[in-house]
UniProtKB/TrEMBL annotation:
<keyword id="KW-0067">ATP-binding</keyword>
<keyword id="KW-0547">Nucleotide-binding</keyword>
<dbReference type="InterPro" id="IPR017911">
    <property type="entry name" value="MacB-like_ATP-bd"/>
</dbReference>
<keyword id="KW-0813">Transport</keyword>
<dbReference type="GO" id="GO:0005524">
    <property type="term" value="F:ATP binding"/>
</dbReference>
<dbReference type="InterPro" id="IPR027417">
    <property type="entry name" value="P-loop_NTPase"/>
</dbReference>
<dbReference type="Pfam" id="PF00005">
    <property type="entry name" value="ABC_tran"/>
</dbReference>
<dbReference type="GO" id="GO:0005886">
    <property type="term" value="C:plasma membrane"/>
</dbReference>
<dbReference type="InterPro" id="IPR015854">
    <property type="entry name" value="ABC_transpr_LolD-like"/>
</dbReference>
<dbReference type="GO" id="GO:0022857">
    <property type="term" value="F:transmembrane transporter activity"/>
</dbReference>
<feature type="domain" description="ABC transporter">
    <location>
        <begin position="8"/>
        <end position="230"/>
    </location>
</feature>
<dbReference type="InterPro" id="IPR003439">
    <property type="entry name" value="ABC_transporter-like_ATP-bd"/>
</dbReference>
<dbReference type="InterPro" id="IPR003593">
    <property type="entry name" value="AAA+_ATPase"/>
</dbReference>
<dbReference type="GO" id="GO:0016887">
    <property type="term" value="F:ATP hydrolysis activity"/>
</dbReference>
<protein>
    <submittedName>
        <fullName>Putative ABC transport system ATP-binding protein</fullName>
    </submittedName>
</protein>
Length: 231
């Protein structure tokens, strides 16, 4: 049964790759607006879980739903559409398109959704301003600092007002101070639009920005607890 407060819900999901049981009977309910870190040893199943929650991987067993709508049962096309309309992604290297200016990188999800260029560019510009990047709209990713490029990636993840933001090592190669700043911006921006945030990380300092902490070991949830987030 799905918890009625849950925005993103996994019900007894399992996923194997050959003999490797990457996820074993994992259940999870993430309420709207909650930030959650997922930690665990290398190979414990963190990325597999994130990819299943995103609908990128299909679990062998179990169900995933977003706002009550099935993620894991729908077709590839329906899952792509669901990702575009209701999910935002932030990955280690930002995954910005290097040849496009910042504003076009941020506008892209809205253009793919079929919004007008005026609306897409207007909202992208507004988000860049909100994240402290006013004046840098025309810069290409290579002309930005690591921290600035991550903010562009955060703006792109949030511009479509997603229900959930999924982040895999979002501060990856950044130094500690810049990483902390990126987490401050990411958690505040997700909270600002009421999006749930799921952050996979190896770094306890990154995890500390989240309200809830899940530890995965051998494909299973070992611990799951909430504490007061960093200021
Ligand atoms: N596409 C795949 N094909 C085969 N095995 C895979 C595949 N993806 C993951 N695995 C295996 O599943 C297990 C879980 O991998 P996963 O990437 O989810 O772990 P992780 O906790 O994210 O690891 P890391 O912290 O090193 O990124 C590992 O044993 C991994 O080798």
């Amino acid at each position: 049964m799905t918890n009625s407060n849950s925005m993103l819900s996994a019900r007894s999901i399992s996923k194997s790759f050959g003999d490797v049981h990457a996820l074993v009977d994992v259940s999870l309910d993430i309420p709207a607006g909650q930030s959650v870190s997922i930690m665990g040893p290398s190979g414990s199943g963190k990325s597999t879980l994130l990819h299943c929650l995103a609908g990128i991987l299909k679990p062998d067993r179990g169900d995933i739903s977003l706002g009550g709508d099935p993620v894991s049962l729908s077709s590839d096309a329906a899952r792509s559409r669901l990702r575009l309309d209701r999910m935002g992604f932030v990955f280690q290297d930002g995954q910005l398109l290097p040849e496009l200016p910042a504003v076009e990188n941020v506008a892209l999800p809205l253009l793919l959704q079929g919004r007008s260029r005026t609306e897409a560019f207007g909202r992208a510009t507004e988000w860049l301003g909100r994240l402290g990047l006013a004046g840098l709209e025309r810069r290409r990713p290579g002309q930005l600092s690591g921290g600035q490029a991550h903010r562009v990636a955060i703006a792109r993840a949030l511009v479509g007002s997603p229900a959930v933001v999924l982040a895999d090592e979002p501060t990856g190669a950044l130094d500690q101070a810049t990483g902390a700043e990126v987490m401050r911006v990411l958690t505040a921006a997700a909270k600002g639009v009421g999006a749930s945030l799921v952050v996979v990380t190896h770094d306890a300092k990154v995890a500390a920005w989240c309200e809830r902490h899940i530890e995965i070991v051998d494909g299973q949830v070992l611990t799951d607890f909430a504490r007061i987030a960093a200021a």
